Amino acid sequence: MSESVQLDPVDWQILSILQDDASITNKALADRVGLPTSSCHERVRRLRTAGVIDGIRASVNPAAVGRGLQAFIAVRLRPHRRDMIESFTAAVLELPETLALYNVSGPEDFFLHVAVVDSTDLQRLIIDDLASRPEIAHCQTHLIFDRPLVTSMRPYPDTHTGPTTGWRNRGSTP
Amino acid sequence: MSESVQLDPVDWQILSILQDDASITNKALADRVGLPTSSCHERVRRLRTAGVIDGIRASVNPAAVGRGLQAFIAVRLRPHRRDMIESFTAAVLELPETLALYNVSGPEDFFLHVAVVDSTDLQRLIIDDLASRPEIAHCQTHLIFDRPLVTSMRPYPDTHTGPTTGWRNRGSTP
DNA sequence: AAGGACGCCCGGATAGAATCCGGATAATGA
DNA sequence: TCATTATCCGGATTCTATCCGGGCGTCCTT
């Protein structure tokens, strides 16, 4: 399912547009990439069934719903036992403040990305919901300044020397 | 623009569905929340113009395009000067490996979220593209195990005592 | 308390898009 | 060179998004 798929420049162009705004109509998308609607539609359908596009999602602006503050909380657990890891992740994913949880290597075990109302709310979250948990040994908080700078999935340039994801090069050279 | 908006339970229900799958048709969405299509459409339109929904985006599965490894790189800069911060962020956002860049408080200055082919590729990225930059004092890499657990933006339960985002409670009680 | 104004809900009509299908065409391998 | 296969592409049909007008409940004003 996640076998690396060969993508040609038009596919990447489609991905670039859809990652930025997937509410565009197929007709407008087709016009922008210079394809008939049916071909464009077929491309998108293929990208979805291949698992390259694994979902179309609405992104909610946390600040617009009163969550003006975001933070990363680096969490270190007590000597790891599988059941403790599972109870920790289950509890964290239930919290409405949680945006994402990353299990990472290094001195910290987890990076927890949260969106809260303000610093008071963050303090409450850490004290009541995290530090009180027995499986947590240590928490370090990193406030996120401004809005995170998010980019989209882009191809390596074709001059790239490392392991390549390949190109299909379907009839693009006249 | 980012003034906190009042949302009722139906709005949150719509947000929950659209954050999970925004490719759903308005008709199907309306059926799931128990509203006529026109009312549902109006709700969604309002959520978009209010900035609560700030975009509909396709999410690309990095593994499906040959980027099987993700990592956070915690970056510490040399004594901060604004121009150095700007040159650093500009350079990082140009890298095709960059997924997101967070400017954070704490001992580290930035968390850089990247998707690369494999550990060799990650090593190349750090050595060639990051450590070589004069404004970077230190990099600490945290490999991300498995797939990150991502949740969606959810409301606080109404029993929540902290600062509330409020409810509209539009005619939900017969 | 009564009146008025505003916002929201809702059904229907129309324009436009998504989707399917068959033939044409180019790439691939023997 | 020829057969095969995958993709491209145009058109027709079905479904959807979207707009519009009326009705109703609620809140504010006086």
Number of helices of chain A: 5
C-alpha geometry of chain A: elongated
Q: What is the total domain count of chain A?
A: 2
pLDDT averaged residue by residue of chain A: 87
CATH topology type of the largest domain in chain A: Alpha-Beta Plaits
| Strand/helix succession of chain A | HHHEEHEEHE
Q: Ranges of chain A with pLDDT <50 over ≥5 residues?
A: 160-174
**What Rg of chain A, in angstroms, do the CA atoms define?**
21 Å
Largest interface: A-B, 76 and 75 residues
Architecture (CATH level 2) name of the largest domain in chain A: 2-Layer Sandwich
Distance between the termini of chain A: 33 Å
What oligomerization state is this entry in?
Answer: homodimer
Backbone structural class of chain A? alpha+beta
Relevant terms:
174 residues; homodimer; Alpha-Beta Plaits; 2 domains; 26% strand; Arc Repressor Mutant, subunit A; alpha+beta; DNA-binding
Structure in a nutshell:
Chains A, B: This is Lrp/AsnC family transcriptional regulator. The structure is a homodimer of 174-residue chains. With 174 residues, chain A is α+β, with helices and mostly antiparallel strands.
Structure write-up:
Two copies of one chain form a homodimer. Mean pLDDT of chain A is 87; it is low at 160-174. Chain A has helices at residues 9-20, 26-33, 37-49, 82-94, 119-131; strands at residues 53-60, 69-77, 98-104, 110-116, 136-150. Chain A has five helices and five strands; from the N terminus they run αααββαββαβ. Chain A folds into two domains: 1-59, Arc Repressor Mutant, subunit A (Orthogonal Bundle), CATH 1.10.10.10; 62-144, Lrp/AsnC effector binding domain/regulation of amino acid metabolism (RAM) domain (Alpha-Beta Plaits), CATH 3.30.70. Chain A is 34% helix and 26% strand. Chain A has a four-stranded antiparallel sheet. With 174 residues, chain A is α+β, with helices and mostly antiparallel strands. In chain A, strand 3 and strand 4 form a beta hairpin. The longest helix of chain A has 13 residues, at 37-49. Chains A and B meet through helix 1, strand 1, strand 3, helix 5 and strand 5 of A and helix 1, strand 1, strand 3, helix 5 and strand 5 of B. The structure holds a DNA duplex (30 and 30 nucleotides). Chains A, B: This is Lrp/AsnC family transcriptional regulator. Chains A, B: Residues 7-68 form the HTH asnC-type domain. Chains A, B: InterPro entries: ArsR-like_HTH, AsnC-type_HTH_dom, Dimeric_a/b-barrel, Tscrpt_reg_AsnC-like, Tscrpt_reg_AsnC/Lrp_C, WH-like_DNA-bd_sf, WH_DNA-bd_sf. Chains A, B: Keywords: DNA-binding, Transcription, Transcription regulation. Chains A, B: Residues 161-174 have a biased composition (Polar residues).
